[in-house]
């Protein structure tokens, strides 16, 4: 089974915020893959899709960003999913809106959701897709910025990156992640 995890915060007030692009990518994937309705267990919402390549689980941790590992770790244990069989989608301040970066491992880079995942999984060697949201301007606090919505000029770039990240995940279902990286990095 392959597991695709989108990081975000639960609740209507966070739906369109910068911090929730991972959830948006999961929603895009669910639509494209005709996923069954998500069920809630293990502090998260998830669904399992049966495909010719095998089973695919889409996951949205409902623990709030900083505790994402509390959902993902137990889910991986219960369904016996290996580290090389996951991809994590999340927002990245160090990338401009409209930029994607795919990696097979790395530090949390200051992202609290990734810190939680690394702590609960005991490794930083797992596939990830970073979706650029840019840095705050004019002295805005990072915590306020990531919980803000995108500006009118940014939204088309974000929509495109959500679509591209979903396409990268679909490509990964039957291709090595290294190949997916080569095709989508810099997109």
Automatic annotation (TrEMBL):
Gene3D superfamilies attached to this UniProt entry: Peptidyl-tRNA hydrolase
Gene Ontology, cellular component aspect: cytoplasm
Entries under InterPro entries matching the protein: Pept_tRNA_hydro, Pept_tRNA_hydro_CS, Pept_tRNA_hydro_sf
GO molecular function: peptidyl-tRNA hydrolase activity; tRNA binding
Site entry (Discriminates between blocked and unblocked aminoacyl-tRNA), positions: 9
Site features described as Stabilizes the basic form of H active site to accept a proton, chain residue numbers: 91
EC number: 3.1.1.29
One annotated GO biological process: rescue of stalled ribosome
Catalytic residues, chain numbering: 19
Complexes and interactors: Monomer.
Role description: Hydrolyzes ribosome-free peptidyl-tRNAs (with 1 or more amino acids incorporated), which drop off the ribosome during protein synthesis, or as a result of ribosome stalling. Catalyzes the release of premature peptidyl moieties from peptidyl-tRNA molecules trapped in stalled 50S ribosomal subunits, and thus maintains levels of free tRNAs and 50S ribosomes.
Name the record gives this protein: Peptidyl-tRNA hydrolase
Phylogenetic placement of the source organism: Bacteria, Bacillati, Bacillota, Bacilli, Bacillales
């Amino acid at each position: 089974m392959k597991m695709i995890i989108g990081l975000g915060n639960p609740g209507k007030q966070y739906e369109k915020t910068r911090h929730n692009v991972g959830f948006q990518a999961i929603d895009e994937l669910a639509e494209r893959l005709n996923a069954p309705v998500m069920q809630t267990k293990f502090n998260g919402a998830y669904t399992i899709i049966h495909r010719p390549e095998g089973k695919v689980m889409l996951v949205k941790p409902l623990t709030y960003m900083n505790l994402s590992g509390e959902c993902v770790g137990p889910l991986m244990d219960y369904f016996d999913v290996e580290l090389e069989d996951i991809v994590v989608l999340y927002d990245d301040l160090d990338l401009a809106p409209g930029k994607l970066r795919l990696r097979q491992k790395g530090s949390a880079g200051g992202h609290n959701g990734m810190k939680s995942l690394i702590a609960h999984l005991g490794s930083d060697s797992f596939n990830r897709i970073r979706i650029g949201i840019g840095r705050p301007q004019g002295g805005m606090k990072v915590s306020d910025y990531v919980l803000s919505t995108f500006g009118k000029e940014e939204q088309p770039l974000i929509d495109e990156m959500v679509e591209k990240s979903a396409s990268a995940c679909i490509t990964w279902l039957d291709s090595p992640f290294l190949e997916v990286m080569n095709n989508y990095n810099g997109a």
